[in-house]
Every structure is written in C-alpha cells, then in structure tokens.
Write a structure and sequence with these properties.
- With 681 residues, the protein is mainly beta.
- Helix content is 3%, strand content 57%.
- The chain is built from four helices and 39 strands.
- The strands form seven sheets. It has a 22-stranded antiparallel β-barrel.
- A hairpin with a 4-residue loop joins strand 10 and strand 11 (170-181).
- The longest helix is centred in the middle third of the chain and has 7 residues, at 297-303.
- The protein is globular and about 80 Å long.
C-alpha cells in the first residue's frame, strides 16, 4: 500500500497570506516536503502534477479557488486572481521575480511544469513580506532539487519521464540526474517537447505548430551545519510557429509566424539558521525574458506580412535581491514570530536586433534594414518591511508595515519617484473544536511598470507619464475554516469573503501619430466576492468541492475611441478583460491500494455572465478523468493516463479577450488523451 496526498487533499485555504500558518503539518511525498495550513496558501505538489498528467501548469492551477487560467498554448497562458491579470500578481520562480509586460496578446509566464515540485498560490495580499508590487496575490513556483531525486540515502539518482498527448500530437521527454557527496549536491535536468496544432471541439486549429520547446536546469548546492549555499541556472525556451496575436483564434487568413520565448534565470542563495533567533536568507537573481519575432523570409512572404513592418527581440530583464530574517521569541503559549528584511529589484524593458523589412513588387523577395535599438524603459523598487505574528494562546494578531521607494525612468522622459507606506493587519482565533475564524486588511501599492515592450521601438520617441500616480488598493477579507481529523476520516472546509477598492489604475495608450506612448491614470475598480472550499476524505476515498464568485465594478476613468469610431471606458491594464462567471470545481478520487492504482475525476464549470456592455459569456462544464498506476512489482515506476475534456465540449475560457464565440475565438482544446510513464532510479 502506498500513501498519497494531492493538491485538493491538502490545500484547504482560500487563504490569508504566505506568512501566516496555523495547524501546520508536513507530508513526505516521494522525498518532497509539502506544507499546508488552514490559513496559508494553496499548494500544488509534484505528485499532484504528475498523477493528473497535466502536461502544463494551466490544468493544475485551474482547480484552485480564486484562480482563473486560460490560453490554448504555452505562449498564451495567463494567470488571473480575483479579477486581476498577471501584471498585478507577484509571480516568482525559486524566488526570482517574473516582471514586465512584453506583448499584451501573449503571456509573460515561461515555465516547464515537469520541473516544478511545488506551487504556492496566495489569493489576496495580506502580508507585507516580499509582496511589494502586488495588488491581488502571488504565485510562487519552486523547482526540483537534487535531494528530491535521491532515494534511501543514495548518492546518485535520477528520473526519466516521457508522455504523449493526442490532441496536438505532443511528445514530452525529460531526464533529471542528481548526485550528492559530503555536503555537495548537483542537479542536471533537460527536457524536449514537440507538438503540432491542437484542435477545439469544432476542429478549429489552436495553439502553435512545429514546436521545439527546450528546458535546461542546473543546480549546485553545498550544506554544512547551519549553512546552505545554492547556485542555479535555468534556460527555458518555447519555440515554434504561432499566430502573432496568440489570444485570438486561428482562421484560414491567420498568419502563422516563427516565434520563440526564451527565459534565462540565474539565482544565488545563502541561508543560515543556527537558532530560533536567526533564520537568515540572502538571495540574488537575474532573469531575462524575451519574445523573439525574428520572422523568416518564408514567414513574411507566405503571410504577405505588412504589419508589423519590423522584426525584433522584445526583452524584459530583472535584477533583484532579498535579505530576510525570521526570529521566534517566547514559548508555546505566548510568542512572537518576527519577519523583517529588505528587497530591491530593477526591471528594464527594451527591443533589440531590430530590422525593418519590405516586400518587393514581385512579392518574391524581402529586404531587411538594421535599425537602432529602442529606448529603455526602467523601473526600480527598494522596500523594507517588518511583520510580527503574535500568538497569545489561541489568538493570533499579525501587524505588518512595508515602506517602498519606487523609481520610474521613462523612455525619453524625466525620472519620477513614488514613496509609499503599506500597513497590514491580520487577526485569527483557533477554537479547540477545529474551528478557526480570521480577518485581515492591507494597503496595496504598485508603481508604474515598464511599458509594453513590443510597442516601444525606434518609431516611438518618448513615453510620457506626467503627473502619474501609483496604483493603490485597500484590501479586506475574512472568513472561517474547520478541520476535523481522526484515523480514517478527515473533513476540511473554509468560507471566505473578500473586498478590494483599487484607485489610480494605469492605462497605456498610443498617440494618434504613433510616435508617443502615454501612461495615464484611468480611475479604479471595486472587486468583491467569495471563495468556498470543502473536502471529505474517508480511508481511500476523497471528494472536494470549491466555489468562487467575484464581481467587478468600474469607477471614474475616461473615454477612449477605437478605429471604428466607437467609445468605451478606459480600464486599468491590470484588470481582467471582463468579469468572469461563477466558478465551480469538483474532484473525486479513490485509491485502489490492492491494485496500486489511483483513479480520479475533475469537473471545472463556469456559469454564464452578462457583462456591462450587455454581451454574455457562455457558461460551460468540462470533465476530466485520470489514472495513476504504481506497480508494486517494479519499484519507482509510475504510469499515468488522463482524458481531458472527455465529452469533447466546445467552450471558451472566461479569461479570453472577447465574450462572443466566432471564427476569431480562441477556443479551448477538445478531447485530449495523455499517457506517460516515469521511472526513478
């Protein structure tokens, strides 16, 4: 018999914040430690991703309350939390911030699901710890370490994995090797992924084709006594032929162009933990994300491409560091957990390798003219914070304060600075019968981010942001949770209400001449809603259900005109395109221990939603089934099978740009059968 705990088995929280945790427990899952708490974040562990045979991070995250994720390819996967898009969310990979906005028709998250061992999702922002710049939440990805692959004290180990998906003929193959000796350890991981166009339920092409995605991850670490040092390098690249605007559907007239999105991340980390007084962490990182539109001559001629008239690499580079410490004072009944530190990051957006092209009259030849690199748009932020989680028997009070100094260096314009103080307060009380109540408040702050890089080229001579105010928000949430556990039965439930009032949201606009790009404050938005989660586990059976509801009310703002002469209210760029319908998820799972098999079912459903312009987002329900087999007669062998969208439902994610369904709609994938195996040694 084997023990298994999945995401929805341990993630009870619609959570207060990353730093709060009560009733904390640790579970060992194939040498991977997963921490969950009734007032913490939602965790996805490596076993959960593997067993559900997700293949991508979208399928795993969409099951979490408060999280919305759509997009039909890795080039278009966008995370939304509580009515806000990824621009308003702190996304990190091993602590390295993933900043910037390269192109609004494509995604900014470049990550390989196979190398992820945990995902911590914080809905809401109620902690001041390393949360500068977030208006709506955080998503922290953690990648595998050498120790995760070393079993039973072995000094050398590894894992080989392969999978195939029928919808887009996708092959994924990866190999991870690890070794350890006298405190030193090394991890080397490599993956290759090939695919073609997928199909929606109505046989419309989706995603991209000629895929040649690659990923390399190398980690070196040394540990002695209380000291830990780690150096890692990752190079992930999605490479294939995609539509220029990935968030729209593919028609017979859609230009399919060669594109790649490499991300290179270098991280150094030092940790020192000799006592409860000193739990010190120092991290330096640099990450560069590029959207490369180096279209070939064949691309340009085949598409008769006239716009854009340049090929280029659009880049976002972020350098940053953290210096943090945690101090615990007191005893079991009364204690203080202090978290304090500083953080700095600098983000630069720019275009390089720019070439202007033209097609001759015969439409058989293309000429390229090199152009100078674009001006650079730079931002930086320095913050210091202090948070104290005070425990008095069963009562917890957590005050926090963060101070930010944010600097904007406009392309072709003057520098601007913004100073801000962000207070936070969280209250919790644990009853002895498993019931917990909580409430919290924080003032959120976000300085103006670098402008959309794709639109800033040699044509744009300046970016104007005069009299710009930073984006701010007042965030409130509260609720209750319940946990009951004995040898055979576990019951978990949580109910949560949230409300956020955002002000001075920023919109990026191009001038009529196209030579100037403007940042302007548009007004604000009020977002409210609730998140419910319940789970029952009895012996080898588990069932979980979640419900998410949100409503966005736009306020103030100004009117903008489109090319066809219509006008609309300008909304902040951090907001989702539209409000979304009520979200429901259901997970049923049974562990057939005598058969070494786990069988599960997932339901994802959205109610229909009538929008402000009276258009309507259609509701839908999608069912998936999955099976994981761990043959007891072959140690460390894992076989997976999943069928996503088992009834071949035609549907559109509520995160897409338009509500109407038509030829230009980015439909989600139809039925997809994925099978694979993994072997650890």
């Amino acid at each position: 018999m084997f023990k298994k705990i999945t995401l929805l088995s341990i993630a009870t929280s619609l959570a207060l914040a990353n730093s709060f945790s009560v009733n904390e427990e640790k579970y060992e899952l194939d040498n991977i430690s997963v921490t969950s708490s009734s007032l913490g974040t939602n965790n996805i562990d490596y076993v959960d991703i593997s067993e559900k045979a997700s293949g991508n991070i979208r399928n795993a995250l969409r099951q979490i309350p408060g999280i919305y994720m759509g997009g039909t390819s890795n080039l278009n996967q966008k995370i939304h939390i509580r009515g806000l898009n990824e621009k308003a969310i702190n996304i990190t990979i091993d602590g390295a911030r993933q900043m910037g906005n390269i192109f609004h028709h494509s995604a900014n998250l470049i990550i390989d699901a196979d190398m992820i061992k945990a995902v911590d999702v914080g809905t809401g922002v109620l902690s001041v710890v390393n949360n500068s710049g977030s208006l709506g939440g955080s998503v922290a990805f953690s990648t595998i370490d050498a120790i995760d692959l070393l079993q039973d004290g072995n000094l050398v180990g590894g894992k080989v994995k392969t999978s195939y998906a029928t919808n887009n003929k996708e092959w994924q193959n990866s190999l991870a090797l690890a070794g350890a000796h006298h405190g030193f350890s090394i991890l080397a991981y490599a993956k290759h992924n090939s695919y073609e166009f997928g199909k929606s339920a109505n046989n419309q092409r989706i995603g991209g084709t000629d895929g040649k995605d690659t990923n390399v991850l190398i980690k070196l670490a040394y540990e002695k006594d209380e000291h830990k040092v780690k150096l890692s390098y990752e190079n992930t690249d999605y490479k294939g032929r995609y539509p220029l605007k990935g968030e729209f559907g593919i028609t017979d007239n859609t230009a399919i162009l060669s594109q790649s999105t490499p991300r290179k991340t270098l991280i150094f980390n030092y940790a020192y933990n000799p006592s409860d007084i000193i739990d010190f962490n120092l991290k330096f990182y640099n990450t560069k994300h590029t959207l490369s539109h180096q279209f070939t001559k064949e691309d340009i001629l085949l598409a008769d491409l006239k716009k854009p008239s340049t090929i280029k690499d659009s880049n976002v580079n972020t350098f940053g560091f953290y210096i943090n410490n945690k101090t615990i004072l007191g005893n079991d009944e009364i204690n203080n957990t202090l978290r304090y530190g500083v953080e700095y990051y600098k983000t630069t957006g720019y275009n390089s390798n720019i070439k202007q092209f033209s097609i001759d009259n015969s439409k058989q030849n293309v000429s390229f003219t090199p152009m100078p690199n674009s001006p650079k748009d730079k931002t930086s932020n320095f913050s210091a914070y202090l948070e104290d989680r005070i425990k008095i028997n069963n009562f917890y009070i957590t005050p926090g304060l963060r101070v930010d100094k944010y600097t904007l260096d406009n392309s072709g314009a003057k520098k601007q600075s913004f100073n801000n103080i962000s207070p936070a307060l969280a209250l919790e009380y644990d009853f002895t019968n498993g019931l917990n109540v909580f409430a919290g408040y924080q003032k959120a702050f976000r300085g103006p981010a670098p402008v959309e890089v794709f639109k800033v080229s040699q044509i744009v001579t300046s970016v104007i942001s005069d009299d710009l105010k930073p984006e701010t928000g007042s965030l409130y949430e509260g609720g209750l949770s319940y946990n009951y556990e004995n040898d055979d039965l576990n019951i978990q439930a949580i109910a949560k209400y949230f409300y956020a009032d955002y002000k001075n949201l920023i919109k990026e606009l191009a001038s009529s001449s196209g030579t100037t790009y403007v940042r302007k404050n548009t007004g604000g938005a009020k977002i409210s809603g609730m998140e419910l989660f319940a789970k029952l586990a009895y012996k080898d059976f588990s069932a979980s259900f979640s419900y998410t509801k949100q409503d966005t009310k736009y306020k103030d703002g100004f009117k903008t005109s489109s090319k066809n002469g219509s006008t609309s209210l300008a909304k902040g760029d951090v907001l989702a395109y539209t409000d979304m319908g009520d979200k429901y998820t259901l997970n049923l799972e049974y562990n057939f221990a005598n058969l070494d098999t786990i069988l599960g079912y997932n339901l994802l459903a959205f109610s229909s939603k009538t929008l402000e312009d009276k258009s309507k987002r259609a509701g839908f329900g999608v069912s998936d089934v999955y099976l994981a087999y761990y043959p007891s007669y072959v140690k460390n062998l894992e076989l997976n099978l999943s069928v996503n969208n088992i009834f071949n439902k035609l549907y559109v994610s509520h995160t897409t740009r338009g509500a109407n369904m038509g030829a230009n709609t980015d439909y989600e994938a139809g039925r997809n059968i994925r099978f694979g195996f993994a072997y650890s040694f």
